[in-house]
Amino acid sequence: MRMSEGVEWALHCCLNLAFLEQDEAVPAVKLAAFHELPTAYLTKQLQALVRAGIASSVPGPRGGFRLARAPEQISLLDVVVAIEGTEQAFRCEEIRQRGPGGGASGGIQVACTIDVAMRKAELAWRQALAAQTIADIAATVGRRYPSTPVRVRNLLATAPA
Amino acid sequence: MRMSEGVEWALHCCLNLAFLEQDEAVPAVKLAAFHELPTAYLTKQLQALVRAGIASSVPGPRGGFRLARAPEQISLLDVVVAIEGTEQAFRCEEIRQRGPGGGASGGIQVACTIDVAMRKAELAWRQALAAQTIADIAATVGRRYPSTPVRVRNLLATAPA
DNA sequence: GTCGATTTACTCGGATACCACGTGTCCGAGTAGCGGAGG
DNA sequence: CCTCCGCTACTCGGACACGTGGTATCCGAGTAAATCGAC
């Protein structure tokens, strides 16, 4: 079970964008260069954020990406779901219904007990993710490393030509 | 982020084995036929359970697999880790250290805040899995579907020649 | 000097190859049980 | 009748192909800005 690395990229990008003025758009090439990421592939992840309504894109010169809403309104779960999709990691294929061990002789069983247990755990994971927002991360970073926010702003803000 | 379906197979197999006498070995071909699973591939998963110390295998005729310890001592996390491996889904690649946004000008940052947040969520997931055992599942199934345990026993116990 | 059309350059967006891991399969090593021969 | 030996058949175990999804890349569509010319 491996999470796409695009999630890490997306989270860092959201965090960096949170340090800027909210209506300032940053082109993908700058966001990529910031962490030496492949630009074209990062664009793909950013588009996923746009589709999910987390970020918005503005085309043309001086265009780029920006957060679509306040960092306080963006949970880590939102970002993870935007990149990884909505379906859960454990997927019950209902193998218990198949074969001689299936419900043929026992009638229709309502819920797979194993599936319920696995869903329970994954729900705990989702709740833990939903409880933390990009703003929380930004606040923690600003407290632990006060120089980071200004450095990000200086490097990502529209360069002085 | 997709979990291997082998996890589902392994969980169901552990559950079925939990219904039997603990020292009774069931060959892989029977466990596979029980849910119409490909025998050879299921064997691979069972071997993983053996390597993890969850199940034990006995070779030769009348051989097969059995649980290595009591169902109360087997958590869902044990099974998931046995199949999926120990490393977590979100892996921090430390991209924050790379590129102009890295710690070059800010000194060595101790912990990646994003990584900490993601680990926190995954820890909640692991704890939720560790809190549930195969015995719990078996008990729930026995309560909701009383006919299942005896059916499993009849189908998996050493057939009358 | 001001307004407007045109050009230009820059951005996103989706369509297209490549690669690794999970999926599926096979054959060989090892062992317990069974049968037969001998005592 | 009991014991020992050899054989057989059945099981696990690891080594070998295949397919799907993630990874990486490219080129085209669209747009805002800058430029040039006319008024």
From TrEMBL, chains A, B:
GO cellular component: cytosol
Top-level taxon in the UniProt lineage: Bacteria
Secretion signal span: none
One annotated GO molecular function: DNA-binding transcription factor activity
One Pfam family, short name: Rrf2
Protein name: Rrf2 family transcriptional regulator
